[in-house]
């Protein structure tokens, strides 16, 4: 690395005296490439030497300890390393363990689900505050049904989440979509789902009766123009478990 005096001479000779790189190199006994580099970047930083860590001799041992107990704390590992000659503190050990665990953490894989056309409807209620009628507030809801392949959305606003309104909104959505998907997915709606018992979902009997009615191929009350599904499946999304 050149001294500050040499760097100043390079720039004075080039920019003030208008010397060429070749002439400056001969005059200062330096390589032309060096002259060009310092003209391009006058303040060149020295290469930093990576200091040896107190943990370097013990990293293999730490890896073995983590294989035995992946959740071992820095305190426990430090106690195991002291007899081997480790003199560092807990901070450096905690930082190293955090870096190792972050690097080796198992990443969760998610499968993107792409239902085919007419394969699935997803249904849920939306909440939109309230509307005032002559000083009386009435809650406003939105029945939402989306066709998962095309993302086509049906929305119907209502003041009620009763079962009768729920069924009526389904019928209107089916008519708007010109058919029914093979699967209907519900986000644990109280109108459809009675309870969860582990992974077992119990639907309301009235809701199941409505679903069976629309799954019957010989239903004489089937609305004109609707495509009938060969089978109809109702699914409730699982309730998230606390971690």
User: What count of helical segments does DSSP give?
Assistant: 8
The main sheet comes to: 5 strands, mixed
Total strands: the figure is 7
First-last Cα distance: 56 Å
Q: Which consecutive residue ranges, at least 5 long each, have pLDDT under 50?
A: 216-231, 237-243
User: What structural class is derived from the secondary structure elements?
Assistant: alpha/beta
Describe this structure in words.
The chain has 243 residues and is an alpha/beta fold. Helices cover 37% and strands 21% of the residues. The protein has 8 helices and 7 strands. The chain has helices at 4-16, 21-28, 32-40, 59-68, 74-81, 90-104, 163-177, 205-215, and strands spanning 120-133, 136-147, 152-158, 183-186, 193-197, 200-203, 233-236. Strands 3-2-1-4-7 form a 5-stranded mixed beta sheet, with helices on one face. A hairpin with a 4-residue loop joins β2 (136-147) and β3 (152-158). α2 (21-28) crosses α3 (32-40). The two termini are 56 Å apart.
